[in-house]
Design a protein that fits this description.
8 strands, about 35% helix, five-stranded mixed sheet
Length: about 220
């Protein structure tokens, strides 16, 4: 979900040589645990960065943005307008894998619904994706009728997706955290990159991409 905001930030802040690897937050954390040494790690939750910090693999992370989980549907479709529509037989839904942040947040919402409603929605899941970009792709391709994504993914869709707000009582707290990887060979640059996410060019790029400010 950061694949638009981070390159924009890097360009504006003068990080011309920055290279990015975008994937599910859990996959990137696993790579670090297996010996990969990027300079900065950013995740769509706070638990993975905190875990890496506790393991001595990441300097203390900071929360740099928040987001909102929404129900999304292709803009040309009129079939889905609320969670109730997801229980209809034949509905096709995409969600995130249970180990990635988008999947964890989605299951938080479903767990707050009555069991019958949650079970009916899960019965209509046709695709489980390793990251939110996979869900957005299924939606824009018309392969599914609805999916759970972030507010910023709807903004990045150039009008191809329509976001449907979830009731406030169901919304999970979606926060993004980043930190300097312990074995970074560019520690000062990495620290400046993380610090720059909190204000100026970093926050501007994040806001334009549909993210919300940190708490």
């Amino acid at each position: 979900s950061l694949s638009e905001a981070f390159p924009q930030y890097a360009e504006r802040a003068g990080y011309e040589d920055a290279r990015f690897s975008f994937a599910g937050s859990d996959e990137l954390a696993a790579q670090i645990r297996q010996g990969a040494t990027p300079d900065v790690y950013a995740a769509a939750n706070t638990s993975l960065p905190e875990d890496l910090h506790a393991e001595g693999l990441l300097e203390r992370p900071v929360i740099f943005a928040t987001n909102r989980l929404v129900l999304a549907a292709p803009s040309e479709s009129a079939g889905v307008r609320s969670l109730n529509d997801l229980t209809e037989p034949g509905s096709r839904i995409a969600i995130g894998d249970e180990d990635v942040p988008i999947g964890i947040y989605t299951r938080e919402v479903l767990n707050r619904l009555p069991d019958s409603q949650s079970s009916a929605i899960l019965a209509n899941v046709r695709s489980s994706e390793p990251d939110v970009l996979g869900i957005a792709a299924k939606l824009t391709q018309g392969a599914v009728d609805a999916g759970f994504v972030y507010r910023s993914d709807v903004s990045a869709s150039d009008g191809q997706l329509e976001g449907i707000e979830l009731p406030a009582r169901l919304r999970p707290d979606v926060a993004y955290a980043a930190g300097v990887v312990a074995d970074s060979r560019r520690r000062d640059e990495a620290a400046a990159f993380v610090a720059g996410l909190l204000s100026g060019a970093g926050q501007t790029a994040l806001r334009e991409a549909g993210f919300l400010p940190p708490p």
